Amino acid sequence: MRLWLIRLSITTVVLALLAFIAFRAASKHNASAQAAEQNLPDVRIDPIAVQTVVAQPKQLVQTVSSTGVAEALRRVQLSARISAELLELRAQEGKFFQKGDLLLRLNEREYAIALREAKDELIKAQSEYALLKSEYNAVAARIENKDAAKQLLDAKARYESATARYANKEISADDLKAAKEAFELALVFSGNQQDAILRNRTGLTKAENMLERAQLNLEHTRLTAPFAGYAANIKVSEGQVVSVGQPCMEFVDISRIRVETGILEKELPLIRVGNRARLSFNAFPNERIVGEVVSLSPVISTETKTAKAIIEVANPTGKLKPGMFATIETDARVYQNRLTVPRSAVLERDRRKVVFVKEGNLAKWHYVQTGVENQTEVEITEGINAGDEVIIENNFSLSHDMPVTVLKATANKPTP
């Protein structure tokens, strides 16, 4: 019994000693941990650099997309109107000319001679005409012409009657022709066509026509610019003999450019003449040039299922050239006073649309409802207000209440 008590006492003392040692070790560990925690540096999250835009009501335009190729406003082929040697070629490829400027000059010697001859023939015919007319007037002054006047009235009445009877199929075409010839002959004898007869007999009319033709041929030795524009595709050279109708060059007016495009059948009701269009040319990818629909075909192509539309744009500097390829956005539906944001501002989380709004220095998560949209903008119908600063870049990795700093704030400008 005494031995058992001794063993119990020893066991109790050992357990107490072990418990004391464990307590001391735990206390030292906690103290070390607390000291280590006190020595740790503060953890800070750097703000994310973002770009923002202020949401505001504006016009939202839905567009129809198409493509086309630039054409000159006017493009004509200039051809020779006479045959002659080309003495002077002033036109140069791509050179600008004002209306009326000389492009080329042909040898005019032969045509100058023809003009002088025509003038001589005219003087001769005028002399004969004057002499014959004076003789006719002298004779006519001595002759009573009452019978001729009566014959003219009778012939006119017969011709009018014949015309009516022919309409009723009472006489033949030959009978009508005879009545007409009798009336015309009576006109001559009555003096009503006296001057025409004299001019024909003396060759005055023919001489006048020959003079006009000679003057015209001489003018055609000079080829001038039909309008302000550029020479292109020159096909002749100095010293060459050109023939009537031979193409010499093309001449183009590119002060304005026309772009032909196709509008799909289903989109045709949305397009009207006068609608604005924005064009982006491959040669100038960072520019959007504003034009206007000037014509719209009423016919749908059975092959392409499109209608031809012509869009015209100003080209004051001449940088747009015929043949350039353009991508076109033509205004279709226009919605006024819609709260819009760029498409990049709208994200999708858990199958719901989200927009991050900068409030203070934090990004706040807003669920939104959207309305109509186009290629660049989206209408927000619920979830944010006008004036909210919406994050549009570096927003994919954001979470609610994450600190942000504005890299660049931009205005939500109206669609140009």
Using DSSP, what is the number of strands? 20
Helix content: 25-40%
Tell me the series of helices and strands, N- to C-terminal: HEEEEEHHHHHEEEEEEEEEEEEEEE
Portion of residues in beta strands equals 35-45%
Spatial strand arrangement across the major sheet: 14-15-16-20-1-19
Mean pLDDT reading: 85
What's the gyration radius in Å? Answer: 48 Å
* Structure class: alpha+beta
Cα-to-Cα separation, first versus last residue: 108 Å
Let me know the largest β-sheet: 6 strands, mixed
Overall 3D shape: elongated
Q: List unreliable stretches of 5+ residues.
A: none
Total helical segments: 6
What does this entry show, briefly?
The chain is an alpha+beta fold.
Describe this structure in words.
The chain has 416 residues and is α+β, with helices and mostly antiparallel strands. It is elongated and about 175 Å long. It has helices at residues 2-39, 109-140, 146-167, 173-190, 194-202, 204-219; strands at 48-54, 56-79, 84-89, 96-97, 102-106, 222-224, 229-232, 241-242, 247-264, 276-281, 284-300, 306-314, 325-342, 347-349, 352-359, 362-367, 369-373, 377-382, 389-393, 402-410. Helix 2 (109-140) crosses helix 5 (194-202). Helix content is 32%, strand content 39%. It has six helices and 20 strands. Among the domains are: 50-61 and 337-410, conserved putative lor/sdh protein from methanococcus maripaludis s2 fold, CATH 2.40.420.20; 63-71 and 254-335, Efflux pump adaptor protein, beta barrel domain (Elongation Factor Tu (Ef-tu), domain 3, Beta Barrel), CATH 2.40.30.170; 112-216, no CATH class. It has a six-stranded mixed sheet, with no helix packed on it. The chain has a six-stranded antiparallel beta barrel with strand order 2-9-12-11-10-13. The protein has a four-stranded antiparallel sheet with strand order 6-5-3-8, with no helix packed on it.
